[in-house]
């Protein structure tokens, strides 16, 4: 069975999937943007789970991912991944961003999850140019899915703003 790769313009905190991905910071304690929205909507259970992870391993490194319960969200789990802060010309940055997507999907598969929704990681305060980030995201997800056929039922990109939505729509149509 081929994994469906879908796109939606909306609020990721409203997605009733097995897991949504949080564009977290390394502290895992919440912040602005997607991270703050997920922590606010999910309530204190997510923060408690993040604090337990911090106590065990001291946070989350850029490009890595950890999983918690979904708290009050319609999603059962939240996969927290730390995107890179964009620095033009730094060749590690696209690799780290790609790792956010690959490691989040690997964690979903390890936990027997079938549906995962992603926000636009690193394109807010971390300053990653939206078009470049879109290319990295779609490429990383497509590569993972081709290496793990049938491991997931659906992966969805959820874009809060129209600009990202249009970039992803064009990229997904082009890449098929």
- Unreliable runs: none
Q: What is the fold-level CATH name, i.e. the topology?
A: Leucine Aminopeptidase, subunit E, domain 1
Question: In oligomeric terms, what are we looking at?
Answer: single chain
How would you classify the helix and strand content by structural class? alpha/beta
Please report which band the strand proportion falls in: under 5%, 5-15%, 15-25%, 25-35%, 35-45% or over 45%: 15-25%
Specify the CATH homologous superfamily.
Leucine Aminopeptidase, subunit E, domain 1
Cross-sheet strand order for the largest sheet: 1-6-5-2-4-3
Number of H- or I-type helical stretches: 5
Give the C-alpha Rg. 15 Å
How can the largest sheet be summarized?
A: 6 strands, mixed
CATH class bucket? Alpha Beta
Distance between the termini: 17 Å
Shape: globular
Number of domains: 1
Helical percentage: 40-55%
CATH-scheme architecture: 3-Layer(aba) Sandwich
- Overall mean confidence score, pLDDT: 95
How is this structure best described in words?
The structure is a single chain. This protein is α/β, with parallel strands linked by helices and 176 residues long. The protein has a single domain (4-175), classed as Leucine Aminopeptidase, subunit E, domain 1 (3-Layer(aba) Sandwich). The protein has 5 helices and 6 strands. It has helices spanning 33-42, 44-57, 92-110, 130-147, 162-175; strands spanning 4-9, 19-24, 65-69, 77-82, 115-118, 154-159. Strands 1-6-5-2-4-3 form a 6-stranded mixed β-sheet, sandwiched between helices. β5, α4 and β6 (154-159) form a beta-alpha-beta unit. The chain is globular. The model has no long low-confidence stretch (mean pLDDT 95).
């Amino acid at each position: 069975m081929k994994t469906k790769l879908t796109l939606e313009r909306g609020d990721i905190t409203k997605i009733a999937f097995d897991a949504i991905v949080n564009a977290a910071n390394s502290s895992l304690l919440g912040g602005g943007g997607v991270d703050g929205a997920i922590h606010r909507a999910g309530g204190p259970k997510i923060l408690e789970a993040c604090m337990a992870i911090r106590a065990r391993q001291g946070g989350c490194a850029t490009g890595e991912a950890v999983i918690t319960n979904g708290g009050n969200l319609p999603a059962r789990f939240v996969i927290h991944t730390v995107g890179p802060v964009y620095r033009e010309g730094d060749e590690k940055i696209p690799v780290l961003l790609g790792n956010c997507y690959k490691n989040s999907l690997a964690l979903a598969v390890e936990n027997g999850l079938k549906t995962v929704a992603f926000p636009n990681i690193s394109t807010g305060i971390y300053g990653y140019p939206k078009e470049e980030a879109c290319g990295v995201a779609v490429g990383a997800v497509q590569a993972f899915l081709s290496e793990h056929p049938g491991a997931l039922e659906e992966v969805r990109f959820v874009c809060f703003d129209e600009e990202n939505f249009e970039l992803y729509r064009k990229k997904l149509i082009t890449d098929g």
